[in-house]
Amino acid sequence: MTAMSGGCQCGRITYTAEVEAMEGYLCHCRMCQRATGGVSIAFVNLPKDSVVWHRAPDWYASSPIAKRPFCSSCGTPLGFMFDDGENIDLTVGSFDEPDRFVPTRNFGIESRHAAWEDTSQLPGVRADEWEPTRSRWIAATGRVPGRD
Q: Which residue ranges does the record assign to the CENP-V/GFA domain (predicted)?
């Protein structure tokens, strides 16, 4: 087991999770697409009792059978949980070290958008090198943020 920390963008909601395997999955279902605004969401599935919330998240009843933790201050989606389930899914992006996880499966593939499956061949630009973003950060804070 590895203790891993995470939380929302503004830092109001934080957690520590005991993670056994560094495995995650992508959910493509329409509920997750609508809840996150993305074409899919990356999750890590964990037993509920392996997660300690240092400050309790807000919860949204996203359907008659499930709810989603989030931060009402910054809007960060933090996960998904069936009402009667023993596990919780935490969003990979909310972990402090999301790059430690690897995807191992897909779920909700009936709603998968094939055009977004492999974007690795598309041109890419680093956010810290994109001048419109860079100059705004420097004007606002005096620096360009790193990976935090």
A: 4-131
